Every structure is written in structure tokens, then in C-alpha cells.
Amino acid sequence: xxxxxxxxxxxxxxxxxxxxxxxxxxxxxxxxxxxxxxxxxxxxxxxxxxxxxxxxxxxxxxxxxxxxxxxxxxxxxxxxxxxxxxxxxxxxxxxxxxxxxxxxxxxxxxxxxxxxxxxxxxxxxxxxxxxxxxxxxxxxxxxxxxxxxxxxxxxxxxxxxxxxxxxxxxxxxxxxxxxxxxxxxxxxxxxxxxxxxxxxxxxxxxxxxxxxxx
Length: 214
Fold this sequence. Notes:
Elements: E1 2-11, E2 15-23, H1 33-41, E3 53-57, E4 62-72, E5 75-85, H2 93-102, H3 113-128, H4 137-140, E6 144-147, H5 151-156, H6 159-166, H7 169-175, H8 183-189, H9 196-206, E7 210-213
Antiparallel strand pairs: 1-2, 1-5, 3-4, 4-5, 6-7
Helix pairs in contact: 8-9
């Protein structure tokens, strides 16, 4: 799951800098900015030579990054947008799609750090935070489902689909969801059909109703 977003810029005087960031949790991001740029630009700085998208695994978190070059007045501007993921998250494809969309936003190349930071926060909260890759049932057994901050709003728009897929018990289950138990423990407490709770959790995560950590 995502836990933050960064924007790196290449300053003509100082080299790579952290231009803006938004972290959902207290995070010590200690990866060398130059190393991130080199992962993308080892074969060249221009769009036709650089590696646009890179997924990198570290000991404390993973990083999905997107390189965006822009020529302004015959000068090449270079930025990298990066989504920081929990260390267990190893499926970057949907994040690539979102970063591709984000790369078209001209505000990323503006000089106003505060405006960029506000944009990163808004984009993260509305487009990135709720992204959930398609999990398989065995994957979620050891994970902990947590209600999202938009739980009430998201579940209200999906009640009909929820009832059709799982029955009326599913809404009561999500409403009363404990916030500190792994899925397999929930299954041992709430006796349902085999893997029914795992499948409900996967569906709820995909629809931004809960988040999975672990």
C-alpha cells in the first residue's frame, strides 16, 4: 500500500533536490536522490533514452518512480515523481498508470514549493491512497484490514454491489471491523463460507473501503 509521495527536481546549481513531499506516516526517506536519478538516466537524460518508470525495493519501503523530462526555452528540466510503498507491496503496475496521468500536470514544474506540496497531498489523497492491486486470497491471510478515512462515503456508494456479491452480513462485518486483527484471525472468529471473508476484504480494498497492511 502507498505511504507517501515525493517530487525530486534537478537543480542546475545543486543537482538533485527534494522539491516537495507528502508522507502519510512519519517516514525517514534516506535514499540518495542521485541514485534514484541514475536508475532512470544511466543511458541518457532525454525522453527517448531514459528509463521512464522504475520499481525499486529497499529494506524499509519500496519506490515506484516516474521520470519526466521537459524542454523549456531550449533548457532540459528533469523531475522524478515517486510513490513510496510499504515493503510488502511488490506490484507497481497500477501505480505506473497513475504516475503517467500525474506527469501531465504542469504545476509539477512550477517554482512554488507550497503549491506543489498541496497538489501532491490532494492527488495522493484522491487518486493514490485508495489504489489496491488485485490480491490473491493466500496473500491477504496475514494482512490487517483497516477502514479508510473515506470508509463511510465509499461504502455508501457500493451497498447494492456489496449485497449482490456477499449478502447483507457483509455490511455489518465491515461496519464492525476490528482494527488490529489479521484476516485469518477474523475468519476464525466470524464463521462464514470458506475464504468468504478474504474475498470480501479484497473487494473492499479494491473499492477504497479498507486498506491492507502487513
